[in-house]
Amino acid sequence: MQRVLVLDKNRQPLMPCHPARARQLLRRGKAAVFRRFPFTIILKDRESGVTQPTVLKLDPGSNTTGLALVADFARRGKVLVWAAELRHRGAAIRKALADRRAHRRFRRFKLRYRPARFNNRTRPSGWLAPSLQHRVDTTMTWVQRLMRWTPVTSLSQELVRFDTQAMQNPEISGVEYQQGTLFGYEVREYLLEKWVRKCAYCDAENVPLTIDHIHPRSKGGSNRVSNLTLACFPCNQRKGNRDVAEFLDRDPKRLARIEAQRRAPLQDAAAVNSIRWALWRNLVATGLDVEVGTGGRTKRNRSQQQYPKEHWIDAACVGESGANVRLDPFHKPLAIQAMGHGERQRARLNRYGFPRGYKLRARSYLGFRTGDVVFCAKPKIEVFAGRVAIRFRPSFVVTGADRKVESHPKYLSMIQKGDGYAYA
Ligand SMILES: [Zn+2]
């Protein structure tokens, strides 16, 4: 059950409480609603209270980042008390910048001669593309918010997919990749990265992949990672006990590619994921303890407890503290979608990038801004909650979970001011 976040009367965070308890407090007038999303109440007369050690756990992903708040209760052990999935808008940012670049290039190319000006920009070290930096920034926004609204005592993040330290040079050392050991999970993640999550023999993607010995054990092949690849189930069955040269005798090109790829060690795979490292530096800067985990360990923790694959569950299973976390697999996490705060550009462009009009400088109209969450009580339809998109005339568009309605603002009442995110 998603717990309700609780603040004391000085806005200091207390332990999140059960929704029934929150309803009781609200009914008795002992608390007021502080925020709707995430649902937070503020107590009217209480100051401070006992809190348990609480870890905010993060599983950063390219589209979705999982957030999980796990409290360590003395009697009941580690319990998930709150979870969310933060969807990023990296693709939208990338497209906006690509459009702008195309428009500028087109205008300049059309209009007049300009001397070449490229190669004259520098980037600070640690620079990330805006679409990537956005992922770090929005994640940090939520870390900081949860530090304000919940008694977070430490942080935990999945930093790398697999741990090369734990594997010690994986391409050289022998491998006993038994199921169940952490080592086996690290090897698996390593192979997924190395073989680009595809079947080596038919390039099948998004199918369950099994570990395959390129040169089979029975024919003297070794257990080293350099002799392992990933195969889909049908290919694995068809290859059976055969050597790769025998199996691919009709496809010498693929055979050569596999032989080359199997010998090439995965270069510095830890540095591949620049966003995760940037996020880690930001987390350390908060001053809280930051535990880091690997994808291999996350997967092991999750499968040992037989939880399904969800971003928020992965977050709860990150790192050493991710073992034995009690959670309900049917728990509904808060869905957070990064929406941005509108755009700075005032010109409306036609499809060639030339101005065809100008937007008003004002951002609000009749007390509303685009992005506010409102109740819509328009006559003749059921009252519903949604996100408002304003126009500079009294006809706004309200988008609810299952409908989109044009409404006069007089029928709208504010639930929560827009903060750059949409919630579900
Ligand atoms: Zn295959």
UniProtKB/TrEMBL annotation:
Molecular function GO labels: endonuclease activity; nucleic acid binding; zinc ion binding
Alphabetized PANTHER family for the sequence:
OS07G0170200 PROTEIN, SLL1193 PROTEIN
Please verify whether the record's keywords include Nuclease: yes
Protein name stated in the entry: HNH endonuclease-like protein
* Keyword terms of this UniProt record: Endonuclease, Hydrolase, Nuclease, Plasmid
HNH nuclease domain sequence ranges: 186-237
Q: Name one Pfam family in it.
A: HNH
Which Gene3D superfamilies would you find in this protein's record?
1.10.30.50
Whether Lipid biosynthesis counts among this entry's keywords is no
Q: InterPro entries of this UniProt entry?
A: HNH, HNH_nuc, NA-targeting_endonuclease, RNA-guided_IscB-like, RRXRR_dom
Taxonomic source organism: Acidithiobacillus caldus
